[in-house]
Amino acid sequence: MDLTIRDARPGDAEGLATLIGQLGYPAAAEAVARRVERLRASEADRLVVAELDGALVGLAGLHISLSVEYDEPAAKLSAIVVDERHRRRGIGEALVAAMETEARRRGCRLIFLTTAESRETAHTFYHGIGFEETGRRFAKRLA
């Protein structure tokens, strides 16, 4: 198994669209390509992909933010998905490890994520790699 973690590129848009569709967020490849460009231009964000033997099989996004609560910045794992056909092979762990390394490099002492309550398999995965459940997320659509 030849697994490579690298920065996402606009040319990955079609594969990324498939992956985020598996998360429940369908999007056209053109829209994803624009999002990748915005993320690449942002100093607060990083988007990486996992390639297995040359095929795109996963993605992870990271967002770094400052807050009034902490001296150090915090890292949000903004997205993580591994293709349904390639799960339980260590790819998700490799993606999270890469994001943790990036967060530490940027001075973060905390990494967190949000997930839907219905994603019990994901919850088991997160617990298994050291994440603790610490609260709830509330969301409100703005027009």
CATH architecture: 3-Layer(aba) Sandwich
Instruction: Return the average pLDDT rounded to an integer.
Output: 94
Give the SSE order as H and E letters.
Answer: EHHEEEHEH
Which band does the percent of strand residues land in? 15-25%
β-strand number: 5
Question: Which key features would you list for this structure?
Answer:
5-stranded mixed beta sheet; alpha+beta; 33% helix; Aminopeptidase; single chain
What does it look like?
By secondary structure, the protein is an alpha+beta fold. It has one domain (about 5-130): 3-Layer(aba) Sandwich (Aminopeptidase). Helices cover about 35% and strands about 25% of the residues. The protein is built from 4 helices and 5 strands, in the order E-H-H-E-E-E-H-E-H. Strands 1-2-3-4-5 form a 5-stranded mixed sheet, with helices on both faces. A hairpin with an 8-residue loop joins strand 3 and strand 4 (about 75-80). The longest helix has 15 residues, at about 90-105.
Please give the structural blueprint.
Layout lengths: L2 E5 L5 H10 L6 H13 L3 E8 L2 E11 L8 E9 L8 H15 L5 E2 L7 H9 L15
Parallel strand pairs: 4-5
Antiparallel strand pairs: 1-2, 2-3, 3-4
Provide a quick synopsis of the model.
This protein is α+β, with helices and mostly antiparallel strands and about 140 residues long. Helices cover about 35% and strands about 25% of the residues.
